[in-house]
Amino acid sequence: MQSPWDYPDFDDHEVVHFVTDRNTGLKAIIALHSTALGPAAGGCRFWHYDEPADAMRDVLRLSRGMSYKNAMAGLPLGGGKAVILADKQRTKTPELIAAFGKAVDRLGGSYITAEDVGMSVADLVEVSKHTRHVAGLPAAEGAVGGDPGPHTAYGVFLGVKAAVRHALGKDSLDGLHIAIQGAGSVASGLARLAAKEGARLSIADIDEGRVRSLADEVNGTVVSPDQILTLEADVLSPCALGAILTEESIGALRVPVVAGAANNQLATPQDGDRIAARGILYAPDYVINAGGIINVSSEHLGDADEVGVKARIEQIPGRLESIWQESKATGRNPAEVADAMAQRLIGRG
Ligand code: NAD
Fold first, then answer.
1. Which of 50, 122, 224, 228 is the most exposed place for a label (fewest CB within 10 A)?
2. Quick one: 163 and 20 in the same domain?
């Protein structure tokens, strides 16, 4: 049998909790990658995995990702993540969610949970009845967290501006052509801010109604989802899916800058080198898209005023610039540099 310490994605995680509750059928894994900077914070994913090993891989990877993301966002938080192993029908009962809340509570604040794929804000409210170690509750529950989308969008907008300044030497998006993949929550916030500054927008989404109404609002052009990655533009902003930057898609890019919100944009670590080899400036995803976590965590950290959140988000461009500077100085690609910086911040460099 393979030793857990030899799991490919095991990265000296501090603690990995396996949770079972016979009464409700709850099976969950809660992984705390690092608490060097504070309690391990990260969402809970409710998902059906074909094999428990897949859940293990997910939780190990995602919790490490949260360590890096929280550290690079300048937050006094470590990185953790939970996965609930759902059945095939993804049956979710209030009792099961309550059992998860109690499991989080037993960890005494070393792990702070939040929303992730398969978990709704309503589920979080249920969780919050059993533990106070939860972030991202709706305002009505006494928190100011609310929807992270607009905050993420603001950070991505500032990050796009920083990239344009670095790569093209321009201080404004006025007259620049930005190709946006996605017309969802973050993409629409970004589109509105960029349009206000005079950018010309091309937008693609598989949801035709959504993309049409966003394009109408920002005076943009609708592009087919097949074409958005190969459009000639000043910036490509991936705001839909992960793993879109592959050997093939990178080879076909016709932009000097890739800067967007989607998580895990690089399909493999080698794609960080491929994009750099093409002379394209890449904004590491978990650095540029940190506005949401900055907002979501603020109420938990007790500095939930809008001014403080905005000020933290406004540090994103400076962080990106220091990554690009170090990348230039060392010849390592920006994604690699960001990981190394995060590792230093959590004392593992
Ligand atoms: P969303 O669900 O509101 O929007 C995503 C959009 O992408 C949807 O409109 C969907 O139809 C579209 N889409 C899916 N497949 C597509 C394809 N092949 N081509 C074009 N469009 C496609 O999601 P969101 O909250 O705007 O998040 C967008 C991305 O940013 C996600 O990858 C998410 O993980 C990441 N992210 C979001 C936040 C946040 O605060 N919401 C924070 C950090 C990272």
1. 50
2. no
| Pair (81, 170) in one structural domain | no
Give me the mean pLDDT over the 283-296 stretch.
95
Q: Which of 104, 134, 164 is the last residue of a domain?
A: 134
The count of domains in the chain is 2
- Catalytic site positions: 81
Taking the complete model, does pTM exceed 0.90, yes or no? yes
CA–CA separation, 134 vs 150, rounded Å? 21
Residue 166 forms part of a structural domain: yes
Collapsing DSSP states into helix, strand and coil, what is residue 207? coil
In whole angstroms, what is the distance from residue 32 CA to residue 81 CA? Answer: 7
pLDDT tens per residue across span 251-271:
999 999 999 999 999 999 999
Share of the chain above pLDDT 90, in %: 87
Q: Within this chain, do residues 24 and 60 fall inside the same structural domain, yes or no?
A: yes
Alpha helices in 73-141 (DSSP H): 94-106, 121-128
Structure confidence by residue, pLDDT tens digits, 50-80: 999 999 999 999 999 999 999 999 999 999 9
Residue 248 resides in a domain: yes
Q: How many helices (H) and strands (E) does the chain have?
A: 13, 12
Index of the ligand 1 atom closest to the CA of residue 242: 32
Tell how far the Cα of 242 is from the centroid of ligand 1, in angstroms.
9
Distance CA 300, CA 339 (A): 26
- Probe residue for ligand 1, chosen from 147, 289, 297 as the CB with the greatest number of ligand atoms within 8 Å: 289
Q: Which domain holds residue 90?
A: 4-66+77-134
